Amino acid sequence: MGRANKVVLAYSGGVDTSVCIPYLMHEWGVKEVITLAADLGQGDELGPIQAKALRCGAVESLVIDGKAEFVQDYAFRAIQANALYENRYPLSTALARPLIAKMLVEAAEKYGADAVAHGCTGKGNDQVRFDVGIMALNPHLKVLAPAREWGMSREQTIAYGERFGVESPVKKSSPFSIDRNLLGRSIEAGPLEDPMTEPPEEIYLLTKAVADTPDEPEYVAIDFEKGIPVALNGQGLDGVTLITQLNEIAGKHGVGRLDMIENRVVGIKSREIYEAPALLVLVDAHRDLESLTLTADVSHYKRNVEETYSHLIYQGLWYSPLKEALDAFILKTQERVTGQVRVKFFKGNATIVGRQSPYSIYDADLATYGMEDQFDHKAAEGFIYIWGLPTKVWAQKTRG
Ligand code: ARG
Predict the structure, then answer these.
(1) What percentage of the chain reaches a pLDDT higher than 90?
(2) Residues having CB within 6 Å of any atom of ligand 1
(3) What is the pTM of this model?
(4) Which one of 39, 126, 179, 288 is the catalytic residue?
(5) 300 exposed, middle or buried (CB, 10 Å; 0-12, 13-18, 19+)?
(6) Whose CA is nearest to atom 4 of ligand 1?
């Protein structure tokens, strides 16, 4: 009796997930493997990937376009939450995992599979996100992770695959481990494992080096509706097009790179390079529009929620009761986050240079230093007397 009869495997077309197909069948007694490749804008041609899965022994090879859902239900949620893990990483890879988990579960239910599988190893965050996401959506499904158990080196994996007709990689494989989708690229391993080593320029694909950026600034107006980006320079765009175009513009000006040491869920510190041009700009612009439209207390309170929310995404708790509760809070705060933010792109910077909103609660007559000033200056005196009283008493008692 094998570990499962029918398995839906998350499939990328790479060596590891390809080797998973014969491995599941020959080592773990699985009778049928159905592969599922999600198109989340990683730029791979999915036709050949689909055919490859069948050559490796899959009975069925599914390809699902998830780009629109990825942007609408995952990326835009993260933007409304200004989600940045450890204050920097906009979670471009992390956000894809719960959607893939959902696709796996739906396919397993549709095809009557008793397990789903993925090719993650035991050291990363993605295994956590897949496993927890899957168990949250269907606690009865088994999750198989062959690469977490097989203990084969890269060479052994390739050799194992060759025995079962898995083609070995044609080009010498790069030393980097790269994950890519519409939101960005994550690059680690190889020479990057030394935190002191500067990332070589050739690892970047979406962003230009500052030295190669245009000598003229470029301005882009981003419209938001209830915290969701809906237009660039006045032109209404669907989410996928908007992100694609903004990636292009920001990347061209050298905006969107990150080099950081991050704390993984499994306790390891890792060095990761990110390119996420549009996402980083959108979070920045969105946060700025909130500063114009949210009251101080909501804005300050939301900071704490954002921190928790970012952790939830990073740690694989997208489908969780706390996440749902925080969603309700965030959605409520977004009701009036509508308006336009102007961004100036120049030499590696995306600077916000203007913002406006029909719901702005900025009051020029209160803020002004001119004659139109409506603020009651005398009221400040009584306020400060009471506000400062505890401190004054403390000073009197302790300073003698
Ligand atoms: N560290 C990032 C995360 O946890 C990316 C993980 C995948 N990175 C990679 N280079 N394969 O979301």
Answers:
(1) 91
(2) 93-94, 125-126, 177-179, 186-188, 272
(3) 0.95
(4) 126
(5) exposed
(6) 125
